[in-house]
Amino acid sequence: MLLGGATPKDKGVWLPVFGIRDPISPYEKVPFQPWAKALYDYRQVNELEPHTRCKASGTAREFLTPYGVEFVELPELDRIYIFDIGGPHTYRTIYLDGRTHPAKVNDSYYGHSIGWWEGDTLVVDTVGFNERFWLDRRGLPHTAAMHTIERFTRTNAATIDYKITVDDPGAYTAPWVGGFNLRWESGTELFEYVCQQANYATELMVGEFEKVDRNSDFIP
Predict the structure, then answer these.
(1) DSSP SS3 for 27
(2) pTM for this one?
């Protein structure tokens, strides 16, 4: 597989190269609608992020964790699965069998994804999102009208170039592009991650990023 997913022989996961809280696009270049910018500003102080409360996260936020993801391609099913290691430990399905999006899509965290290969690049077209996740760790909002195109390109043995085009007329005045690189961490395997009830990530709730005792009952 061109994305180099984990195999029984060659284990590993993909992690973000830059800081997980870095923006996926310079915010001065993001064409916010006024309400979306106001909500983004609010989230800088009130970091009540759904991901820290055991909810799945679609699009770019899926990759912005310290635990990484695994890509698993099943050619016999014409599908790729992306397994999240942290958070709610869910997975996303990308259909490669040539289907189109259904006329009616039930909104979900990951949406409905169809994909195809353009040379060495996996292109993923997704619609049908719910509004209950952030686009990145900094709080970019979106609406159920969002349509994304993601491009995954393996530029070398240890790097995937990730680009996302966001087209959401409900939250932005024009489509915009963001992205970052993912790096291969060899030897790491998907592990059991328990997203506990009442894991409220207390330092994120107040937005101060004060030190949290990792021996306490609250482990973000």
Answers:
(1) helix
(2) 0.85
How many domains does the structure of the chain reveal? 1
Tens-digit pLDDT profile for residues 4-41: 655 667 788 899 987 666 778 888 999 999 999 999 99
Q: Which residues pair with 190 in a beta bridge?
A: none
> Cα(47)–Cα(138) distance, rounded to whole angstroms?
8
Between strands 91-95 and 112-118, the pairing is parallel
Domain that holds residue 125: 12-206
One-letter identity of residue 75: P
Beta strands in the chain, from DSSP E residues, in sequence order: 12-16, 69-74, 79-84, 91-95, 112-118, 121-127, 147-156, 159-167, 176-186
Distance CA 14, CA 71 (A): 8
